[in-house]
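Troubleshooting entry. The earlier prediction with zinc ion gave an output that would not parse, so I re-checked the input for stray whitespace and re-submitted. Clean input:
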Amino acid sequence: MTATKAYAAQQAHAPLAPWQFDRREVGPHDVQFDILFCGVCHSDLHQVRDEWGGAIFPMVPGHEIVGRVTKVGAHVKKFKVGDLAGTGCIVDSCRTCDNCKQGLEQFCLTGGSFTYNSTEQDKKTPTYGGYSSSIVVHEDFTLKISDKLNLAAVAPLLCAGITTYSPIRHWKMGKGHRIGVMGLGGLGHMAVKFAVSFGAEVTMLSSSAAKEADAKKLGAHKFVLTSDAQQIKQVTGYFDFIIDTVSAPHDYNLTLSLLRTNGVQVCVGVPPTPTQIYGFSLIGGRKSLAGSLIGGLPETQEMLDYCAEHNIVSDIEIINIRDINTAYERMLKGDVRYRFVIDMATL
Ligand code: NAP
Ligand code: ZN
Ligand code: ZN
């Protein structure tokens, strides 16, 4: 066992504070790496506050993890000591169900092991995330990280990146499509970068007028302030796809009204409360309301390689781990430009 320093919440709504726990011994197929940077996802906040229910405490959040390998098991082929490595939201799965066999481990039919607030495949041992000094992960769930990019800015690709890349690939969004990205935060800014990179016309749909200049800098062609009825009218019936990243409750009927015939709203944001949808919002124009959860291991590696090739990283603000609770408060106010990343040397 390896004694591991961390920041944890001991119960829902408790502030994160220093804690220590043991990581397992490195098994024959495991990779151990020192965590250098960990991104701060809005899901961390939802979960430490138990907004989705069923939270497991103590909780060490963090699933945008990058670092350097310190030890590998005897059978490990992909990694050697000194390599860069990364881990996203999944650390294991059954590997035998239909979804796992297709590389869709996030939809493991018997339940995947998520990086934290979850259990290992024994369904008993709690998993602890990346707000910690090191991690031990099976090599199949460890990602190769390019040394060409700024490592701190790569960390958010492990969740914000794959969560927006995956629906763009699945629905084959790109040239000739009008894509609306709703919510300019961690996921939203990556959605804009990817959608632009795949050749779509991209409109930022934001509740924050102050983010217009940034949206354009990120590559968005248009900006619509969602609280302005006049601006909303101009994009009614306009989009082929809307990638909805909003973390708080909002009116899906309004979003659906912005789609053209056969348009698809892909929800990646997970507001803590259910929402009401009128059948009429869907039937006129044969619209679809869909969802997408992170991405499987092969697609996550594909996304990381794509980012290395196209020089795509996250726009980040590096924080000291002591400031994590303040960072959560700022995230709630939409005051992130556009992802906090913890410098784990401050742990
Ligand atoms: P974030 O950085 O906090 O961004 C969320 C954005 O939503 C904000 O920047 C804001 O954008 C908008 N927003 C927030 N409150 C709002 C409100 N009351 N009304 C309208 N807009 C509001 O969060 P994130 O890390 O990108 O995560 C976004 C959501 O995706 C969270 O629910 C998270 O749990 C979820 N998530 C899902 C997956 C998945 O696999 N599906 C993966 C990761 C995260 P504007 O200021 O531009 O309006
Ligand atoms: Zn996340
Ligand atoms: Zn499975």
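This one parsed fine. The longest strand covers residues 30-40.
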